[in-house]
Amino acid sequence: MAFFPGFLSVVFVVRNQADTLEALLSNATELIASIVSDYELIVVDNASSDDSISLLKRLTDESGFANLQIYALTKEVDLDTASWVGLESALGDFVAVIDPLADDIGYLPTMLEKAVSGADVVFVCNTERLMQSVLYRFAYRLFHSAYSWFNNIHLAKEAPQYRMLSKKVINFILQHPKPAMSYRHLPATGGFARAYLSYSATPKPQPRKRLGDSVDRGVRMLVSSTRAPMRLVTALSLFGAVVNLLYCGYVVAIAVLKADVAPGWVSLSLQESGMFFLTSLVLLVLGEYILNMASFSNEGPLYHIGQEFTSARMTRLEKLNIEEINPISVMKPTLVGGKSS
Question: Could you tell me the fold of the domain covering 4-136+151-208+311-318?
Answer without folding.
Answer: Spore Coat Polysaccharide Biosynthesis Protein SpsA; Chain A (3.90.550)
